[in-house]
Every structure is written in structure tokens, then in C-alpha cells.
Design a protein that fits this description.
With about 170 residues, the protein is α+β, with helices and mostly antiparallel strands. About 30% of the residues lie in helices and about 15% in strands.
């Protein structure tokens, strides 16, 4: 009876990619946070430079030079936003599959008999996803002298996020 729902749940269980646009500040910078528990410095990198100049395999903290993959640098707010966006996507997929299964079930039911059975789906409202603000206004902007990567931080920064450009 719930063929489409079961099929969609199996597909989701195998892992899918959900594109989630990350908000930038008014200057085009993306908020980042050092994943080192000793540092946790917040800084920003110009989005195009993050995409084009910083390698996915290794990113360097401009404050402490900690190294980690590019996926490790989301802020707490961004992580929450990503989880919420994923849940909104999941709810949309499940809702659509249940509606399709109910429509299919109802179409197969005989009409005009003494007993009539039909299914309906009432999942409630989907939450509205609001992007996180690019918080801090008091940031220092930097441009790497070697590779021209643009980034910013609260206070001094000592290393380019694409550090191996030197």
C-alpha cells in the first residue's frame, strides 16, 4: 500500500545530496569557524575564494593554523541551518510520497458500494527555513599577498585559509 513511501525511504537511507545555499554577508563573505576545540575562532572567507582557492582536502585556520577538511568549518548557526534544511527536505519527500500513495490507493477503490475506504494525508505545515544572519559587523578584512584569497576575522589573522599557497 505504501510503495512510493517505502521506495523513497530506501533512497533516502542510501544518502542523498541536498543543495543548501549558504548565506553570505553584505560584502559576499561566508562565515567560518575553526573546528579546533582550543581555538574556535570565527572568521570569514570571500565565497568565491572559498570555492575557487581553498582546497576541499585541507583548510587552515587564519588564527591558529589548525588543519581540517573544508566540510569542518561551519559555524554552530550554519550547522543548525543545515540540519533544519535537511529536515525540511525530508518532510517534503515523505509528504509527497504519502500523498502519491494515498491517491494511488484511493484510485483503486471500488465506487458505489456499501463500504467506502479512502486515505488522506494531513501532515501539517512545513516549517519556513530562514537563513542565518552573517552576524558580526566588526571584522577585519584581509587579502593574502601570495594567492589573493580574501578572508576576514574578528581581530588579527595570521594565516591564509589556503595556506599552502606560499
Amino acid at each position: 500500500m505504501f510503495k512510493k513511501l517505502i521506495r523513497e525511504m530506501k533512497r533516502l537511507g542510501q544518502g542523498i545530496k541536498v543543495p543548501i545555499p549558504m548565506p553570505r554577508d553584505e560584502k559576499g563573505y561566508l562565515d567560518r569557524c575553526c573546528p579546533s576545540s582550543e581555538c574556535l575562532a570565527e572568521f570569514k572567507v570571500f565565497l568565491e575564494d572559498w570555492r575557487d582557492k581553498v582546497k576541499d582536502e585541507v583548510v587552515y585556520c587564519p588564527i591558529c593554523r589548525y588543519e581540517a577538511k573544508s566540510t569542518a568549518w561551519n559555524t554552530v548557526t550554519q550547522k543548525r541551518y543545515i540540519r533544519e534544511a535537511a529536515m525540511v527536505h525530508l518532510r517534503k519527500v515523505v509528504k509527497q510520497a504519502m500523498e502519491d500513495d494515498a491517491r494511488s490507493f484511493n484510485a483503486r477503490q471500488p465506487r458505489g458500494g456499501l463500504i467506502s475506504i479512502s486515505l488522506s494525508v494531513k501532515p501539517g505545515r512545513l516549517p519556513i527555513l530562514i537563513p542565518p544572519d552573517a552576524a558580526e559587523a566588526l571584522r577585519q578584512d584581509f587579502v593574502c599577498e601570495s594567492c589573493a584569497c580574501r578572508y576576514s576575522s574578528l581581530g588579527a589573522a595570521f594565516f591564509c585559509p589556503a595556506y599552502d599557497c606560499h
